[in-house]
Specification:
- This protein is α/β, with parallel strands linked by helices and about 450 residues long.
- The protein is built from 17 helices and 14 strands.
- The strands form two sheets. Strands 3-2-1-4-5-6-7-8 form an eight-stranded mixed β-sheet, sandwiched between helices. Strands 11-10-9-12-13-14 form a six-stranded parallel β-sheet, sandwiched between helices.
- Strand 7, helix 8 and strand 8 form a beta-alpha-beta unit.
- Helix 9 packs parallel to helix 12.
- The longest helix has about 30 residues.
- The termini are far apart.
- It binds uridine-5'-diphosphate-xylopyranose (2 copies).
Length: about 450
């Protein structure tokens, strides 16, 4: 079959994989190839056991793979044979040198730009999918257009707004698609090419265009705003616990103001995930770089409150369990950073486990999808940790349950049965407010919700 357009994505991760699968699914007239330096990841994409768990992903991969969706390790051939190249390699926070702990580490990004230059034999549209600091496209342009040849490159910014766990729905029905370009004739033409691809399924009014710098910045600002709402509500949850106000009631009352809106106002044990912290720190670093110290401090506090919320959770466990956790068994309900994903990157559960181990507690972790990642995250960590898939088995003999992920399965467990196998007094620390607190209290548990009065028998 002759395809109309040949599209490549470099980076077969959480973003690249599902996004390309959706493009292939919606555009049977185009061929989509996803390449990655990691051969085992590509092998998994080509198997029945995909490397990431995402509801609905299996179906669209099954419908397209081998027809117009291909996964390969041949980066050189991929660059040579495709006209539109999405780049979705990871841009983690730098761990060394200037900006360590804050700035984005662009080494994979730059290496990819150099590969594109090296292997291109015809002109290409290069699309930034990874979240990047503003002005990254400028560096990319400088690398790609360094040697003057007949091969030219147009760079677009097309940030991804999908959230894990709902990625397929977010890709299918996005709030908006944002495409930024250089304000030149060829920049506009490249942008139109990408608009046409999305227009196969996204209504035109939802495809918005901007200059390239606005597009790059909008991605990190969107994430910063979402995270800021969570830190705002979490900060207020601490006040609720001191004043007998109830965070769910406050959140509902505040969120019903249509100017504020109700989403991202659920108090929690803290936000996790690969993006929020990284992107805010990126924003902070950018502001510092431009001498905007007040702005940098403002945003940095969003991350500080998130850390505070996790620490508060630990201290609450410690003080309510007679100021010692040594030798006590604590069961963590959930290790993923949110429900419906196996992803544990930056999950509050990682920090909480390590802190509890420092207190010499014994940890039992249960999670319907994330135990494999949990084991990898905790490899080499000292202390007693076990991993048990069945929550009923996991809680046996435990002194406390800490609910860290809002998996539906934890809402409807038989807490009477659970209570009967635990060591007494048995406590539940609900870091997600998903359990029926009153019912568990009536069964006999001491219940410590987030941002609500505790229900205790002592
Ligand atoms: C990544 C970025 O982290 C994020 O900032 C951006 O918004 C989207 O892309 P994600 O897809 O979640 O997010 O990352 P990850 O799952 O780590 O996937 C990146 C993939 O790129 C990995 O499979 C890695 O092997 C691959 N990669 C990395 C390359 O193919 N080449 C490289 O040089 C580096
Ligand atoms: C986020 C953005 O939502 C998405 O647009 C962007 O492309 C990538 O980053 P993601 O990290 O996958 O997506 O998940 P998200 O649903 O935003 O949740 C992030 C964290 O915030 C999770 O740990 C979640 O549990 C937490 N959260 C979310 C809360 O604590 N309270 C809320 O009200 C909402």
């Amino acid at each position: 079959m002759i395809f109309k357009k040949n599209i490549l994505c470099i980076g077969a991760g959480y973003v690249g994989g599902p996004t390309m699968a959706m493009i292939a699914y919606k555009c049977p007239q185009h061929r989509v190839t996803v390449v990655d330096i990691n051969p085992s990841r590509i092998a998994e994409w080509n198997s029945d056991d995909l490397p990431i768990y995402e509801p609905g992903l299996d179906e669209i991969v099954r419908a397209t793979r081998g027809k117009n969706l291909f996964f390969s390790t041949d980066i050189e051939g991929g660059i040579r044979d495709n006209d539109i190249i999405f780049v979705s390699v990871n841009t983690p926070t730098k761990t060394f040198g200037a900006g360590a702990g804050m700035a984005a580490d662009l080494q994979y990004w730059e290496k990819t730009a150099r590969q594109i230059l090296q292997y291109s034999q015809s002109s290409k549209i290069v699309v930034e999918k990874s979240t990047l600091p503003v002005k990254t496209a400028l560096a990319m342009e400088k690398i790609l257009n360094y040697t003057k040849s007949s091969v030219s490159f147009d760079i677009l910014s097309n940030p991804e707004f999908l959230a894990e766990g709902s990625a397929i729905n977010d890709l299918d029905n996005p709030d908006r698609i944002l495409i930024g370009c250089r304000e030149t004739e060829s920049g506009y033409a490249a942008r139109e090419t990408l608009v046409e691809i999305y227009a196969n399924w996204v209504p035109r009014e939802k495809i918005i265009t901007s200059n390239i710098w606005s597009s790059e910045l909008s991605k990190i600002v969107s994430n910063a705003f979402l995270a800021q709402r969570i830190s705002s509500i979490n900060a207020i949850s601490a006040l609720c616990e001191k004043t007998d106000a109830d965070i769910t009631e406050v959140s509902r009352a505040v969120g019903m103001d249509s100017r504020i809106g109700s989403k991202y106002l659920s108090a929690s044990v803290g936000f996790g995930g690969s993006c929020f912290k990284k992107d805010i720190l990126n924003l902070v670093y950018l502001c510092q770089h431009y001498g905007l110290h007040e702005v940098a401090d403002y945003w940095e506090n969003v991350v500080r409150i998130n850390q505070y919320q996790q620490e508060r959770f630990i201290l609450n466990m410690l003080t309510t369990m007679f100021n010692t956790l040594a030798g006590k068994k604590i069961c963590l309900f959930g290790f993923a950073f949110k429900a419906n994903t196996s992803d544990t990157r930056e999950s509050p559960a990682i920090y909480i486990t390590k802190r509890l181990l420092e207190e010499k507690a014994e940890i039992v972790i249960t999670d319907p999808k994330a135990l494999k990642n949990a084991k990898a995250d905790l490899a080499g960590v000292e202390g007693k940790v076990s991993f048990v898939e069945d929550p009923y088995k996991a809680v046996e003999g435990c002194h406390a349950i800490a609910v860290l992920t809002e998996w539906d399965v934890y809402r409807n467990l038989d807490f009477q049965k659970i209570f009967s196998t635990m060591t007494k007094p048995a406590s539940i620390f609900d870091g997600r407010n998903i359990i029926d607190h009153k019912r568990c209290f009536d069964i006999g548990f001491n219940v410590y919700p987030t941002g609500k009065p505790a229900l205790t028998h002592t």
